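To fix ideas, we give here one paired sequence and structure record:
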Amino acid sequence: MEGLVPIAIWTVLAVTGLSLVAIGLFGIRSMMQGKINPVTMVLTMIPIALLGVLGLVMESWAEAAIMAVLISLGLTAGALLLSGVRGLFG
């Protein structure tokens, strides 16, 4: 059973990596075909880029992931607040 755990972990990591590559490729294909707005794709990539930058700057990747989630949550809340205020007065 102990020998099976590392194999299972590497399998999960490989499948996760392949799915991320597939998501990226299909996103690029959809953007090339004009199905999505490029601004939407850039906004979707902000948390991933934030995690990458924070991961390289901070001491551990776990702390970087937590900070990236908190910053993304704050940015999302700010965007919703601004959207609501704009809808209220516009």
In short: The radius of gyration is 18 Å. The mean pLDDT is 90. Residues 54 and 64 are 5 Å apart (CA to CA).
